[in-house]
């Protein structure tokens, strides 16, 4: 079942090593089929060189395997919770990309420090707070998903306008309208983390945020009804 | 029309990913035909892998599309203003190359800290100041061009001797006698930004500028009537 | 003799340049055959491009060449001592990978600062202390091995749970159940050193260690009887 | 004339981009034929992709072109002076490799901070002091050579034991028994500069030098009559 979706998810997973976002077998991408109420995700711990479209695992939105001979990614309960809670999400990516992880380990949001950031993320990429011992000892991966949602709800951030997060001590999750869009956002997040790291070092005593009006201009140049970037504009 | 120019501009655009100056679809290169009063520029938001010479868009110097089925780069009004104002410019490049953007976001000029810089840029690469809300809300891309020119005129810098700038909060623009020359300058700008970042970190308490006489020697070793670098010297 | 083992060791050695862990001829990998009481190791100072499986050198556990026309790696006595002392080791890797060496030269352990680290190393990767003049002037490579064992015994660290070390002034050694597993650990060590360096710089005043319960969760998600990462779980 | 030498020098020049030591046309390698009293060097400002063995230029030891249709590297007088002054030199390399240039611009020697350095350079790689206006305005490239020799003589450093230098405000020169050996030393210099930069940042308040006895051990493990590294040992 779902041959086309498996192929799309396979290709989005293969885009992670192609864009230098993963080491070894790390990282995973999924995409949801809202009508069928399932999502397709990378199997756990498989080498990218050995991965095939038919290895992708079909999982129900409550996190049970529906089809597939391989174990799904251990992060599957995180994906499932995000799909259940945020119904606009079409695809999700998790990586250990180096610059985003550096910020995640430091517990510091990736600041909206320039137009490179503003073109994709409408504001800082927030940090989901450190999980408690209880949250880690019980349903760890589910609680990771819950902590992500809390980070957005507590600060009233729209997850479709800021399509990514850093989980403290861990690394980034990004999402989008489909798997490849989520990969796009994972690429941008790591690049802006890298650039921002150096900007912060060059200018340690100053707030490096762009003004709100420039954030607005660049974000809405690419998103929404008045967008005029690219070829599908109004 | 302008098949040869389109091909040159296409090749200069493709030189950006080949030299690791771009992520995704970011960046754009143009070249002007002064006789015909038009310039050719990359279309907006097209994947470099899909780009073809015939996709290049022909634009008049006042910024209107003369030929082409695709939307030109959103940065087209910036290019047009620079061509109108500085009549020696033959080609223009805009990128989000990582090291130059780090300086642009920090609002710090790239200092002339060594002969690597002096061979191409006769002095610091300046920062065009942050745009105001009015400048961003109205004709943003045009005002970006105006801010660049102001940065040079206010400090009496010759744009042909310092063929590049950092736009604050945004990133670098470089230019040259043609598109490929502007790409050359974009490559050098990112390399010297990278090296200078590390020099500044190694020696934070000291002015790292080269003495003026060494800047003179290296710049004029490569430029002007007494140049003796390369094969086309006098 | 030992054609299969030589091939495995050859392939593990070739994985070092493939994963950007070596410059020039630096680095070496070995794997032991416990039944025969020998290990196979890279010859000294041979270019990776010229290396062939049959060039691998067979060495007894007391460090004497048993078979091979080439000199074994100068680090052979270090490998031999580790195999003799820690009988669970199947493979050993030594590199001068850049980030791990930066920490080794600084004499600073690579901190368990995130789940990326916790998935592979159950705690900080320790530093074996600087050797004395006597230790360097006499059997230097043997004494390197002894200093590694002392670093683990003095702090009661299980070498199979923390499969790597930094030798002060020098660089990393990693190990594992076989040569390729040791290469895996060498890759992870350099990546976490790189990420931790940036985390420490972003957050210089704060302890960046993960809490013990998260270290437990991630390490035991991948190791031991309750592991549930990957395809060979219980 | 000198077909074999031209081929060797060509290959050594091509090893610079292959090892990521150059940007654009920067960098040059030469090798001397002491019997004939000439050296062969890269032409000035030629793209590495266009370079051919027959483009190499033959120059006399007093710096005059003996054969070749192209202008030799502008750094030719520096090479010539070093060959005249240090008669053990067989090959010379000049690059603008990024990490070595960062130290050169900062005016800071690359410290002997680990065994990676000690294997190739028997002590810190020194900085030749900034040239005066007179030195730059007159025979700049010759005076660069003189400043290099002064840096070694004033501190009584053996150029064959420390086969490289940083020229202040400029970049590295390395040398060796032939062109490819000099390239080897250029590779090592940039790698140790990169690693040392990070070590200095991790440990800013501490002297990061290796003890003299470890410098001795590693250097003499590879050099001199008691060397035991590699396959050509005694």
From TrEMBL, chains A, B, C, D:
InterPro entries: Aldolase_class_II_sugar_metab (IPR050197), Aldolase_II/adducin_N (IPR001303), Aldolase_II/adducin_N_sf (IPR036409). Its EC number is 5.1.3.4. One of its GO terms (cellular component) is cytosol. Pathway: Carbohydrate degradation; L-arabinose degradation via L-ribulose; D-xylulose 5-phosphate from L-arabinose (bacterial route): step 3/3. Keywords: Arabinose catabolism, Carbohydrate metabolism, Isomerase, Metal-binding, Zinc. Involved in the degradation of L-arabinose. Catalyzes the interconversion of L-ribulose 5-phosphate (LRu5P) and D-xylulose 5-phosphate (D-Xu5P) via a retroaldol/aldol mechanism (carbon-carbon bond cleavage analogous to a class II aldolase reaction). One of its GO terms (molecular function) is metal ion binding. The keyword Flavoprotein does not apply. Gene3D superfamilies: Class II aldolase/adducin N-terminal domain (3.40.225.10). Residues 7-197 form the Class II aldolase/adducin N-terminal domain. It catalyses: L-ribulose 5-phosphate = D-xylulose 5-phosphate. The keyword Cell wall biogenesis/degradation does not apply. This is L-ribulose-5-phosphate 4-epimerase. Its cofactor is Zn(2+). Pfam families: Aldolase_II. Belongs to the aldolase class II family. AraD/FucA subfamily. It is an enzyme of class 5 (isomerase). GO terms for biological process: arabinose catabolic process.
């Amino acid at each position: 079942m779902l041959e086309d979706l498996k192929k799309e998810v396979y290709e989005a997973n293969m885009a992670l090593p192609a864009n230098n976002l993963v080491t070894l077998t790390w990282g995973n991408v999924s995409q949801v089929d809202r009508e069928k109420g399932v999502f397709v995700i990378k199997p756990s711990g498989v080498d990218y060189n050995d991965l095939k479209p038919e290895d992708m695992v079909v999982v129900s939105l409550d996190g049970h395997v529906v089809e597939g001979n391989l174990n799904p990614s251990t992060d599957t309960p995180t994906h499932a919770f995000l799909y259940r809670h945020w119904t606009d999400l079409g695809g999700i990516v998790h990586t250990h990309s180096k610059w985003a992880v550096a910020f995640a380990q430091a517990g510091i949001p990736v600041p909206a420090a320039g137009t490179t950031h503003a073109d994709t993320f409408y504001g800082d990429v927030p940090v989901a707070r450190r999980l408690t011992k209880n949250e880690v000892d019980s349903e760890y991966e589910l609680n990771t998903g819950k902590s992500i949602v809390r980070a957005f709800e507590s600060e009233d951030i729209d997850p479709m306008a800021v399509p990514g997060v850093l989980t403290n001590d861990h690394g980034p999750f990004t999402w989008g309208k489909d798997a490849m869009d989520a990969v796009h956002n994972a690429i941008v997040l790591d690049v802006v983390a890298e650039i921002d790291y150096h900007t912060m070092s060059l200018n340690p005593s100053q707030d490096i945020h762009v003004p709100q009006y420039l954030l607005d201009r660049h974000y809405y140049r690419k998103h929404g009804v008045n967008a005029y970037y690219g070829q599908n504009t109004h």
